[in-house]
Amino acid sequence: QVQLAESGGGLVQAGGSLRLSCTASGRTFSSYAMGWFRQAPGKEREFVTAITGNGVSRYYADSVKGRFTISRDNAKNALYLQMNSLKPEDTGVYYCATRPARITGPVAVANDYNYWGQGTQVTVSS
Question: CB under 8 Å to 23, separation ≥6 — which residues?
Fold first, then answer.
């Protein structure tokens, strides 16, 4: 069982920055790939970015490439999302999630992630 808790969301003007954090319980954090997803009102949850357990490989949705950076600190059981040049369309609830290492294939499939945090709200005003 892994418990995840996101923090760092808030209200920011377009062009601003936010840094989200996700802390995980358990001693097997480094064995999981991790991802960030977001869900805007009235829309389906969508993939944002993911990182492998060792932090070597990172994947981004086209909509956030060049603006968002995912990172992790396995010693602290922590996952981060640095979001720069924020746009109103980035507004939504952001969730972190774990993906077991045994799962292969595209990282953007939400059903492949087995533990989820409660989410943190990000609102970008124009």
Answer: 4, 5, 7, 76, 77, 78, 79
Mean pLDDT of 58-78: 97
Q: Look up residue 114 and give its amino acid.
A: N
Residue 26 contacts residue 41 (beta carbons within 8 Å): no
Q: What is the pLDDT of residue 126?
A: 94
Q: Is the pLDDT of residue 121 over 90?
A: yes
In 3D space, the residue among 82, 14, 15 whose CA is nearest the CA of residue 48 turns out to be 82
Residues 42-60: pLDDT tens digits?
999 999 999 999 999 999 9
Helix/strand/coil (H/E/C) assignment for every residue in the chain: CCCEEEECCEEEECCCCEEEEEEECCCCHHHEEEEEEEECCCCCCEEEEEECCCCCCEEECCCCCCCEEEEEEHHHCEEEEEECCCCHHHCEEEEEEEEECCCCCCCCCHHHCCEECCCEEEEEEC
